[in-house]
Amino acid sequence: MREKITHILLNGSVIALFCLLLLLASTWWRMTSQFELGEAALRRGDFPAAVAGFESAVHMYIPFHPVIEKAAGRLWHLGETNEQLGDVNRALIAYRALRSSFYADHWLITPGRDWIERCNKKIAALIPLQRER
Asked: What residue spans define the domains of the chain?
């Protein structure tokens, strides 16, 4: 009886580990795909698609994965570029997308706290300059 229980627990553990590895691989693939879509949109000059791609990549959060920082950096760059061009609305879209992406990744911790703080400062400075369409 004891051997049967051990066998069941071992099989259950192997299955659980396999499922976690599949989840990690799927998340990794989706994150990379979304980042590449954002890069392609950025090269085309398609602002909404670039923001969506980079934002989605950050949503696929895997701790310490370099694509997360790259995607966050691209969103920050989009915000700064549009801010320098005087397009406050687009700058706000980029900063808010970056901030909300890290808020959406909240679980036991909130990743990207430094990005959130930087975005909060930019958003607070840009809101008074915003013109409604």
From this structure: 2-129
Of 36, 32, 13, residue with least CA distance to 24 = 32
Report the pLDDT averaged over residues 98-103: 96
Maximum alpha-carbon separation in the chain: 74
Half-sphere exposure of 55 (CA within 13 A, CB side): 19
- Per-residue DSSP letters for 54-117? HHHHHHS--TT-HHHHHHHHHHHHHHHHHHHTT-HHHHHHHHHHHHHHHHHT-SSS-TTHHHHH
Placement of tokens 């590449």 in the chain: 36
Q: What is the pLDDT of residues 18-44, one digit of tens each?
A: 999 999 999 999 999 999 999 999 999
Rg from Cα positions in the chain: 20
